[in-house]
Amino acid sequence: MITPPSLSKRSNVATSSTKLDKLGRLEEVKDLRSIWPDEARDFTPWLSQLANVAILEEALGISLEVQGIEKEVGPYRADLVCLSDRDRRVVIENQLFRTNHGHLGQLLTYAAHLEARVLVWIAKEFTDEHRAVIDWLNTNTRDNVEFFALQIQLWKIGESAIAPRFNVVCRPNNWTRTVEPPASVGEAGPKHLRFWKQFNEHIAKSQNQFRTTKPSTSHWTDIAIGRSGVHLTLLNRWGRDSVFRIYLSGP
Fold it and tell me: Quick check: 77 and 83 in contact, CB under 8 A?
C-alpha cells in the first residue's frame, strides 16, 4: 500500500517549486556601447570611480589608487594611471571592441614612458594572436613587469540592473605566488572598519544632511550630501595621508 505524502511534505514541495519558478536566466548584453557609447568620455570615467575600481581590484588581486585619467604620453593618452599598494605604477588601456595592434602598441609605449610595472589591457574580445603576445611578454620580460589581459562583459537577469564582469584572459606566469591581497584583507582591514564606525558616529552626532554608508574594511567610503548628482568620497590610507574627493554627475 502506497502512503500519500503528508500535507507538510506537499507544502515543502510547493514552496520549493515556487522558489524554482523565480529563478531567472543570466543573459549577456553584447553591445557594450549601449551602456558606454564612448571609450574616453564614458567607459574610462566610469572605471575610475572607486566603486568600479573595486571590481577591477577583485579581478586583478591588486589594490589600486587612481592617479590620472587620459594622461598625455606624447601624442597618445593613457586611459588610466594608478598606483598599487606596493607603490608600483599601473597603466590601464581600455578597448570596447576586439583587440588590435594599435592599442597593443600604445600599451607598450605607456610602459616605457611612464615606467609602469603593471600593464592592464581591457577589451571586449581578445584575438588568439594578442593573447599569445601577452603570454610571451609575461614569459620574456623582466620579473618586475607584469601584463594582464581582461575581457569586459555585461550581464543581466531579466529586467534587472546590468552588471559588469572582468574575466582574466592572461596573467603573469607566477601570479599565484606574487598576488597582492585586496585592501579589505590583511592587517589594515580591521583598522579601516573601526575608523569608519567612529567616523559614522561622529557624522550622526552632527546636524547635517550627510548620509554615510555601512562601515567596511575598505580604505574608502562614499557620503551622500542630499543633492542629486553630487557625492563625496573619503580615502583613509594608513601611514600615508587622507584624501577627500567630490564627484559630480549629470549635465
Answer: no
Rounded-to-integer distance, Cα 251 and Cα 249, Å: 7
Give dist(CA 86, CA 61) in Å, integer.
12
Here the CATH number for the domain that contains residue 62 is 3.40.1350.10
24 in a structural domain: no
- The pLDDT of residue 194: 84
**DSSP category for residue 219:** S
**Are both 150 and 115 inside the same structural domain?**
yes
Map grid coordinates 564582469 to a residue.
165
Residues 37, 154 within the same domain? yes
Domain span holding position 202: 188-248
DSSP 49: S
CB count in 10 Å sphere of residue 14: 10
Per residue in 84-120, pLDDT tens?
Answer: 877 789 999 999 999 999 999 999 998 888 888 899 9
Give the count of beta carbons closer than 10 Å to the beta carbon of residue 70: 15
SS3 content of the chain, % helix, strand, coil (to 5): 35, 30, 35
Mean per-residue pLDDT over the chain, rounded: 79
Q: How many domains does the chain have?
A: 2
Query: Residues 219, 237: contact at Cβ < 8 Å?
Result: yes
> Does residue 192 fall inside a structural domain?
yes
Please give the DSSP secondary-structure letter assigned to residue 210: -
Task: Check if the beta carbon of residue 85 is closer than 8 Å to that of residue 180.
Answer: yes
